[in-house]
Write a structure and sequence with these properties.
Number of strands: 12
Shape: globular
Number of helices: 9
Structural class: alpha+beta
Radius of gyration: 19 Å
Strand content: 15-25%
Helix content: 25-40%
Length: 305
């Protein structure tokens, strides 16, 4: 059977959420493979040797029941409540209960007890920044994306999002997309594509967060050092952690992308190795600069390597 293939202008590799969403498609349905166009603005190419890509995504799309059962939910099984500030004992409960859960990665890709602050709380990943107002933890943001007024009907929304002309909705999303931010004069300041945001969440499976084993309760003079896969200190900007990601030319499934992220070195001195891996472009994240001291906005843009 000839592979079913779709070029997705709505998922350009230079857009951090678009890239994560494309990877998330391979997580959500493991029949899907991903590579990128080799032009000035690489776009995701999703393919499947056995089925239509959109049909596969519809078939695998997470239900509200599945999302409610994620180990990062506020209330989950018989464990204590899990909000933005997570004590170590709560994390330990969740980690123990989630060990055989198919979505245990939702916990390990958002927080870690290998870094503990002076209040005895676990550290969060860079892709789990605090949200505005009362929406301060990732699970609330994810569940809110699935409201029927945002995703209905699913087939139409999926197609429009992949093609790049979906109508954005007023929502903060997962909270790290720079393009969601409007100007200070906008009546409604944030707009997102809920399909892309949902897929981006599943892309986080590729990026667990770890730490250096520091417990600030024991020594408050020693700073904790969390690290999430894909985040590195740029050689040109020492001490500034940035997320780095590539575009590649061969169709890869989730496991192959996972392997590629292990062996790819993004730094310029090793760029000669990119061609051997089929990589033709790469980017690094750029932090949003707050407009005032009271500005708590978190977001990431990108610049090409």
């Amino acid at each position: 059977m000839k592979p079913q293939e779709i070029i997705c202008p709505g998922l350009p590799a230079c857009w951090i959420n678009g890239w994560l969403a494309a990877v998330g498609a391979t997580v959500l349905d493991q029949r899907i493979r991903l590579h990128w166009t080799n032009d000035g603005n690489p776009k995701a190419i999703l393919s499947s040797p056995k089925t239509d890509v959109v049909d596969a995504l519809i078939e695998s799309w997470p239900s509200s029941e599945l999302l409610a059962d994620l180990p990062i939910a506020e209330q989950w099984k018989d464990t204590d409540l899990c909000k933005r500030h997570v004590p170590v004992d709560v994390f330990v409960q969740r980690a123990s209960k989630a060990r055989m859960h198919p979505y245990s990665w939702a916990l390990s890709s958002t927080m870690t007890d290998l870094c503990v602050d002076k209040n005895g709380e676990v550290e969060h990943a860079p892709f789990d920044a605090p949200g505005p107002g009362t929406i301060k933890w990732l699970h609330h943001r994810l569940v809110k994306l699935q409201q029927s007024k945002y995703i209905n009907p699913l087939e139409t929304q999926l197609h429009e999002s992949l093609m790049g002309y979906a109508v954005r909705v007023n929502n903060n999303g997962l909270g790290f997309d720079c393009s969601r931010l409007g100007s200070s004069s906008d009546v409604t300041p944030v707009f997102i594509d809920p399909i892309v945001e949902t897929l981006a969440f599943f892309g986080l499976k590729m990026f667990p967060v770890r730490g250096d084993g520091v417990d600030q309760r024991l020594d408050q003079h020693v700073k904790t050092g969390k690290r999430q896969r894909g985040w590195r200190s740029s050689t040109s900007r020492q001490g500034n952690l940035r997320f780095l990601w590539p575009a590649w030319s061969e169709p890869l499934d989730y496991a192959a992308i996972d392997a590629l992220m292990d062996i790819w070195n993004p730094f310029p001195r090793l760029k000669s190795t990119w061609k051997k891996l089929g990589i033709h472009a790469g980017w690094q994240s750029v932090k949003y600069n707050p407009t005032a001291s009271a500005d708590t906005t978190r977001a990431f843009g990108s610049e090409q390597l």
